[in-house]
Amino acid sequence: MTLDRTAGLAETARALAAGDVTSRALVERTLARIEAAQGGINAFRLVRAEAALAEAEAADRELAAGVSKPLLGVPVAVKDDMDVAGEPTAFGCCGEFPPVAEDGEAVRRLRAAGAVIVGKTNTCEFGQWPFTEGPAFGATRNPWSTAHTPGGSSGGSAAAVAAGLVPAALGSDGAGSVRIPAAWTHLVGIKPQRGRVSTWPRGESFQGITVNGTLARTVADAALLLDAASGNHAQDPHKPPAVDASAAVGRDPGRLRIALALKPPFTAVPARLLPEVRARVVELAERLAALGHTVEEADPPYGQIGLTFVPRATAGIAERVAEAPFPALLDRRTRGSARLGRLLGGAPLRAARRAETVLHGRIGGFFTSYDVVLAPTTAAPPPRIGALLELSGFATDRAMIAACPYAWPWNVLGWPGVNVPAGFTADGLPVGAQLLGPANSEPLLVQVAAQLEAELRWHEKWPAPPVTERSAAA
C-alpha cells in the first residue's frame, strides 16, 4: 500500500498499525517529497534524513512486535523553536548553532507516542512576525500561491502540512503564530490552553504568552497530535487539567450561544477588516446558525488589553536576544524590540502580568452570556513575499496590526483558540476564522470545529503540488 500526500495523521497511523505500509517506506517517501518541494516551498530549516530513517526502522521493529502507540512510525515535523536532541535550535536566526543535548518536553512526548521527527520547519527570527522570511533561510512560500507568504511565525510547519509533505506538525503561538498561518494555508490550527503542551526547557515562553500548538488538515488530526504532545515537565509552572481532544471530535456540542466578534481589539494604529474576509467569516456564522446555534454580533470587553501585551512580548524578545550567540547578525527590528523590552522589563512588565487576573474576570464574564466567540483570524489575506521583509520596525508593526489584529488577546489570556478554514478570496487566497473559548475549553472548540468540517469538508480541497515535486513524481 502506498499512502499519497493526502493521507492524514490518523489514516497514516492506522495503515502502519495494520501492516499496510512500513515506517521506513513511508519516511523515505516523505523525505523525497520534502526534497522535491524544498526549492519551491522552502518549508524546512533542517531535514533529519539519516536520523529519521533510523527512527523509522526502530518503529518498524516495534510494530512487528505488536507494540501499540498512537503515532508509532508516523512522520511529523516540528518548528525550529523546539529542541530536538542532536540538532541545533536556531529559531529563525542566522549563524551556526550547536546541537542541543536533550529533546524539549513536547518533542519528548511526540517520540513517546511513536512519532518520527523528520525535520525542523522554518520560522521568522524569534517568531516575531506573521511572515516566514529572513537571511538565515530565505523565504518560505505558500503552497496555495508561491508569490505569497504562508504567514508566521509557524509558516514552515503550515506550508509543510498544506503541501502534503507531512500529515501534521507542531508550531508555536505567541500572537497568533499557529492560527494565522493556519488561516492563510487552509488548515486547522489549535492554540491550546497555556501549559497544555509544555514549552520546557522554558517554563514560560515569552513571559507566558507563547504556547505550542498543532497544525493539520482535519480537526481529528490536529486533535490527535495535540493529545500526543500534551503534558507537562515536572517543573512547568502551568499545569492545566487534562483534556481528551480526540474524544471531542464528532461529539454533538448541543445548541450554543455564539458571539460573532468582528470588531478588532484596541490597537494604537488603524486596523480594518477587509470586506472579502468579513464575508467569509459571516458565511461561517450563518452556517453555524443553520446548524441550530444562536449567533449574534457581540464583542468581548477587551478594553486596552494591548497595554499588557507589549511589555510581555518585548521582554520576551529581550530575554532571547540576551542569550543569542550572534547578536550582531540579528535583524535591526529584533534589536529594537529588545531595547524596548529592557525598558519595559521592570514595573511595566510586573503590572502587565498582574493585569491578567483582572482580564480573566472581565472577559470571563462575557462567557456567562456566550459559549464560544467566532472572530476573523486575520483582517486580510496573506501578503506577498517580501512585502514586510525590509520595512522599518514601526512600519512592520503597522503592517502586522493592519493584517493581524485579532489573534493576540487570547495569548494574553492564555486560553484556547482554534482556526478553521473560512474559504478563499476571489484571487484564490485562503482565509480563516477563530473559534475562541474560556479556560480549558479545547473540547468544546474541537466539537464546533468538527461540526463545521463535517458540513464544509474543507480538507478535500488541495493546492497543486509544487512544480519540482510534480517533476519528481513524473
Lateral strand order in the biggest sheet: 6-8-7-12-13-11-9-10
Q: Report helical residue fraction.
A: 25-40%
In round numbers, the mean pLDDT is 96
C-alpha geometry: globular
Family: Belongs to the amidase family.
Organism: Streptomyces swartbergensis
Protein name: Amidase
GO molecular function, one term: catalytic activity
Please outline what is shown here.
The protein has 474 residues and is of the alpha+beta class. It has 16 helices and 13 strands.
Give a description of the structure:
- There is one protein chain.
- The strands form three sheets. Strands 6-8-7-12-13-11-9-10 form an eight-stranded mixed β-sheet. It has a three-stranded mixed β-sheet with strand order 1-3-2. A two-stranded antiparallel sheet has the order 4-5.
- With 474 residues, it is α+β, with helices and mostly antiparallel strands.
- Helices cover 39% and strands 13% of the residues.
- Residues 469-474 have low confidence and may be disordered.
- It has one domain (9-460): Amidase signature (AS) enzymes (Alpha-Beta Complex), CATH 3.90.1300.
- The radius of gyration is 20 Å and the shape is globular.
- Helix 10 crosses helix 12.
- The protein has helices at 9-18, 23-38, 49-64, 105-112, 155-162, 179-185, 219-229, 245-248, 275-290, 306-323, 332-344, 347-366, 393-403, 409-413, 442-456, 467-473, and strands at residues 44-47, 75-79, 116-121, 133-134, 138-139, 168-173, 188-191, 211-216, 257-260, 294-297, 372-376, 417-424, 430-436.
